[in-house]
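Ticket #4471: structure export looks truncated?
Reporter: QA, pipeline team
Priority: medium

Steps to reproduce: submit the single chain below to the structure queue and open the exported record.
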Amino acid sequence: NLVMKPLLNDKAKLVASTEYIKNNPDIKRPEDLKEHECLTFHRLRQHTFWHFKKGKEQQKIRIQPTLSSCGGEPLIHWAKEGHGVTLMSKWIIAEELTSGQLVELLPDWNASLTEADASSVYMTWTIAGAQRPAVRAMIDFLSDHYRSFLTDVAS
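Actual output as written to the record:
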């Protein structure tokens, strides 16, 4: 008896700092990433692939990570410091994109960490739990807080 509500519809963005872009070869197509420093999520005993789609064309690029992390914060930090290119959910790097600390690469391509074009984040609770004031307050707060992300971030 669970209830689910979407909080975010998100797309990933391929990003790097202006310093990295200035000091390295252009990235014009996804396969160019094979010649770049890539910052990825750590995948124990698994290869890392980044997926790209443009119209009917799809590419699955095997990435050889220069640096990897279990979390997104180190990847963002390394990218801002000019250590390489990373693929990150737009809602996580929205501030860095707006401020110009990170710049989107290959904007004509839909990029993803999985074969799906986008990912979603859901809030889940039990029907009985929603009757408790604290749980109801959290549901209302998160719904209001992330309402703009359902439309703004996906674009």
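Status: closed, not a bug. The export was complete when the record was re-opened. Leaving a note from the reviewer for reference: DSSP finds four helices and ten strands in the chain.
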